[in-house]
Amino acid sequence: MNDTLRNAFYEEAEELFQEIEECLLDMDSTGATREKIDNLFRYMHTLKGSSAAMEINDMAKLTHHLEDILGMVRDQKLDLTREMIDRMLQSLDEMKVRVAKHKADESYEIDVDKFTADLDLCKSQAENRENNKAGGKTAAGTLSENERSDILKSLGLEGKAYQIRIFLPKDAPLKGARLFLVTEKLEKSGQVHKTSWEGLDLEQIEGETFDIFYASQLTKKEIEDLIYTISDIEKTEISEIHADTELSGDAAQPAEAAKSAGKSAAKTAVRSEQAVQPEKSRDKEGLQSVIRVNIKKLDQLMRIVEELSVDKERLKQLMKKVKQKYNQDEDVKSLNGLVHQIDFIGNEMQESVMSTRMYTLDSVFNRFPRMIRDLSKKEGKEIELKVEGESTELDRSIMEKIIDPLNHIIRNSVDHGIESPEEREKCGKSRKGTIKLSAGQEQGHIYIRVEDDGKGVDLRKVKEKAIAKGLITVDQADSMGEKEILELIFMPGFSTADTVTDVSGRGVGMNVVKENIEKINGIIDTDNVEGKGLIITMKLPLTLAIIQSLLIRTSRFRFVLPLLSIIEIFRVKDGDYEKKIRFVQGKEVMNWRGEVLPVLRGSDLFRSGGEKEKSFVGIIIGLSTRKIILAVEEIIGQQQVVIKSLERFSGRGNILGEMKGISGTVILGDGDFAYVLDVQTLLKEVMKKRKEGYRVGD
């Protein structure tokens, strides 16, 4: 089969899987409306056509069965229960496996009979419950073709047609009277065309679900407000009726339904069942305005832009020297203007190329509603996920590395953070816990924050567990501040869980978080309130390619520090040295905002030795949860740099040998180079030397 068609199918299937899962989770949490069912039906119908075109017949058969059930729900012959949603999600997981196996050219077949049998069982149970509720006397109303046509013809310029479903409590008294009051209210602002209890006396009306077909200029919100003025109305669902709403089979649904899905028209448009073609967006003239580009081509373009960025900085430095020599020359002035223009164009090109590598975080965030739903159900907890800032953009290379950390943090929040409903009630909290996942951009970096309203971290228990596992001594535990105790949860092998489960408890998860964030020069910050919850914030660079950095000098060397790793800069003068600096086992340390941090002299990085000056510029650098003070002689300035890795030249047996604390080099504007400090290795080495009691430069 044509590779283009195969790849288009895989992309489309992945997109549809995401749409279907989001739709099912939304209906599970907020209820099934007509518009949501219409969207879900359309996604399933498209998936059925695509899989049939690819001759994946087992998947086409399963989607056809799911489509049949959704058709019954859409036609109001069946209520969508949580058990049915569970089975649909399980079917979806199986289809994901099927597509993955097909992509890898591995043989695999869905046990369609098993899934359809489970779905049919849920359907039968739902039908029985509905029959018991209705008592065989009241059923949901439906419209014939002529009735729908009559309603739509009666509409004025501003009029709309609605199906209103009313839910009354099972034990509500005088149900007929309540429904009479509802129709009376509605008649004042529109026309009631049909009700599901037509032909029955008011005192004969039983059941809990009733339908009204209504035409009015009122909005859905205004109708809801009107209905809820009547007492004993448990719930109401309102969906708009369009010209093709009740058409049978595979009729297209109105465009408004697609809009309601909250996605672009390109995602929700009904696609041909005959063939799977790559999705193309077109402008007003019909010309193609969006094309797919191989990521390798973008990476190559990014490398070219990196080289351009380096040469651009060199050109600016040379221009400064030329201006100093020939500042009155008219040609030099013109050349200087041209250099500024090239600098501007280069920056524009860099931003444009970088933007092509940026992805919105919703592609990452979208995987967590399902995970939280499944975990909370398994743990017997009630948890709501709130998401903010999912439109924040992040470089593809960084996004790949934050999925595992987020996964571990959220699993920990579910398992350790959020209490059981009964425990929350005892603490005066609502039965349902909340996990909030948010993102944004500030001060040149991206932050991703996970916060829960659970019980927080028990600091006493953390210390006891760390001592019991031999991670710290009793004396160390007694001298620790709150932040230092919180850092223990990121140590390998640490866990506060009393038993190991398949969710957590092995002491691996949070250490994975720290290691992964350190690899991309990120920072982790924790805020804890016992009994109230825990907040974990990850600060990440915008990109790993071209970075904003601080150029510093110490001894005869120049170094580059990523700006994201810098927390604060201060100066220690000769007269302040005795007041601010203390010694622990012969090592310089300093009290910074309640934390005792080791001081690393930049001159010791290459064992330059010599007597140390009392005055220095102190740079607080941090990575993940650890911090040190780097003492340097001079800060040269801020500069945008492109890192050249030395990885293939360093290490045992290579020409440069072992290089600790240096991750690469950068070419500066004057043509010379500077070393890029590897903050991750630097912090590890300092902490190791500090524990072992050796001098940092050894």
Commentary on this structure:
- This protein folds into five domains: 132 residues, HPT domain (Four Helix Bundle (Hemerythrin (Met), subunit A), Up-down Bundle), CATH 1.20.120.160; 97 residues, Histidine kinase CheA-like, P2 response regulator-binding domain (Alpha-Beta Plaits); 62 residues; 182 residues, Histidine kinase-like ATPase, C-terminal domain (Heat Shock Protein 90, 2-Layer Sandwich), CATH 3.30.565; 147 residues, OB fold (Dihydrolipoamide Acetyltransferase, E2P).
- The strands form five sheets. A six-stranded mixed beta sheet has the order 20-12-13-23-22-21. Strands 14-18-19-17-16-15 form a six-stranded mixed beta sheet. The chain has a five-stranded mixed beta sheet with strand order 6-8-9-11-10.
- A hairpin with a 2-residue loop joins strand 8 and strand 9.
- By secondary structure, the protein is α+β, with helices and mostly antiparallel strands.
- The chain has 22 helices and 23 strands.
In brief:
With about 700 residues, the chain is of the alpha+beta class. Helices cover about 45% and strands about 20% of the residues.
